[in-house]
Amino acid sequence: MSEKLIIPDEVVISKIYHLRDLKVMLDSDLAELYGVETRVLNQQVKRNEDRFPEDFMFQLTKEEWENLKSQNATSSWGGRRKLPYVFTEHGVLMLSSVLNSKKAIAVNIQIMRIFTKLREMILTHKDLLIEMEELRKKVVGQDDRIEMIYKYLLQFIKEQETPRTKIGFKKEN
User: Fold this and answer.
1) Fewer C-beta within 10 Å: the chain N or C terminus?
2) pLDDT for 85
3) What pTM was estimated for this model as a whole?
4) What is the CA radius of gyration of the chain?
5) The domain at 9-125 falls in which architecture?
């Protein structure tokens, strides 16, 4: 069937960037994962450009590329002659149809699973944020009541700390 890859999910996740409000992957990172040269990946894309509309793949601007390099100072992106291309989730999925090796297909499956996990995580966090906002709305305007309860509790604690006068008979000497 498909060959078993041992690319840690963390490695793939570290190659997913957030640009133009999209999650994208660089052509060079994808080529590395697929085990092909970046030039070969881009040639295959150019031969099948009708499969890669602008919302599947686009070329970075010089500013975007500089910004990305500065955010990842330790990377070894070296001297490229052309600005890199990036692929959205749909573009990565389409790559499996133009790079038809077993490794490319297996890596694509792994990347698709990671994109799905990331989407699920975002939805989970969104649900938590909505619940926290609802709680915040319920608490808003309750500051005076909470302060009053706090003062009562402080008063109660102080009363517990002060020694009580003993009740009972006193011995006479």
Assistant:
1) C
2) 92
3) 0.61
4) 30
5) Roll (3.10)
